[in-house]
Structures are given as structure tokens and as C-alpha cells.
Amino acid sequence: MSQTKSAGVIRLAATGLTVSGLLGISLPSQAITIFGGSSPDSGSYRSCASRLLSAGISPEAAAPACAGALNPQDVGRCVLQITSRTEIAADSALASCRQVRRPIEVSRCVVDISTSTQGQTVPGVLDYCTRSLLPERFADCVVGLGREIQFASNQGLETCISANDRPLSFEPTFIPAGQFPPQQPLTPAPTSQQNQTQPIQPAPAPTEPQNQTAPTEPQNQTPTQPAPTQNAPANQ
Length: 236
What we know:
Number of strands: 0
Strand content: under 5%
Order of helices and strands: HHHHHHHHH
Shape: elongated
Oligomer: single chain
């Protein structure tokens, strides 16, 4: 009876896990709130649509962009900040803000680098900020180096993007991808004759002497005396 109840409980638990897994698969990944974060409300979607329309995005493009965003309000702010403070087109800004996890950091990266050049256009700044894993740190690198070093074209962007996305604290044992460590020939260690161990031969097993029969002493034999014979009387 107990085994039947246990089997029923196991089947019930397996059914619940299957249903929850199917629900998780059916939901879009961008609409799932991660680690208990607050889900967007109606005001977030409204703010996203309003800012995208103000930036020059068409209603047909703004609606799916806000509906599929994890944080709709951040996407709207990202696009509006980039278009209002740089010469980047709204459609290009929307494409970058939608595909990153931190839209606000990307917009700050683009704006900080663009404003540091005193009105000069920085080619590819939106692409570099989108590619960077740490957009704000990348912007600090570009702006800080650019104030002391005169880079040619986008050399500063390329320098900081290469250093920004490189793993740290691996030198000197870190080997870049596609390279193999140099192989050194293995030389056997010299062995002296004194250190060579002689093979141990097994000691012969002691053999016990066979039981030897003690020599038998001859028994004392008494000589036998012939019995005296009596002469028979002669016939008279």
C-alpha cells in the first residue's frame, strides 16, 4: 500500500515539473523577469512608446520594440538620449538599445564619447559601445586617454575595446587563443651507478637434514655348544 502511495506522489511531482517547464518554454525570454525583479507595468510601456515616438521612431516600429523589451522604460530612455545629444539616427539607436542588457549604460557610453570630441563625429561609436561588455568603463577609457593622447581616427576606440574585453589576472600563464605553449624536449635525468639498485635474489630456503637411521649394533649372540653325544653300547 505504501509503495502505491509513493508511486502516485512521484507521478504527481513529475507532472507538475513538466507543466512548469512547458510554460517556461512557451513564454518569450525577453518577457521573463529574472531573479525576482519587478515586472514592467503599464506606465513603463507607455513611457517607452512616448520616448520612441519623440525620438522619431514610427509607431509600427515602436510598438514591438516596447512590447518585447525586458525593461521598456530603459529602451525608450536609451534611444531618446542618443538621438537628442548625438547625430546618430533613431533607427540605429533603437537597434542597439534593443539588443543589449544595459541600454542606459550604452546610451551614456555613446553620449560621453561623442561629447568629449567637441562636436567632432566619432565614426563607429555606437557599434563599439554596443560591443563592449562594460560600456561605462569603455567610455571612461576612451575619454581619459583621448585627453592626453592624440589618436588617429578611431584608434582610441579600438585600443580600449581590446583592453576592456580581455580577461584579467591571467599573466604570465595566460596563453592567447590559437597559440600553443612551446614544447621542450624531455631529457632523462642522469643516473649514477651507485644509485642503481641491484636486483634482490631470493635466499635459498633452508633444507632440513633427512632422518638418517642410526646404525644398528649387532646383538650379542651366544655361541651354541653342540650337545654331547652318547656312544651307544656296542652289540655284544
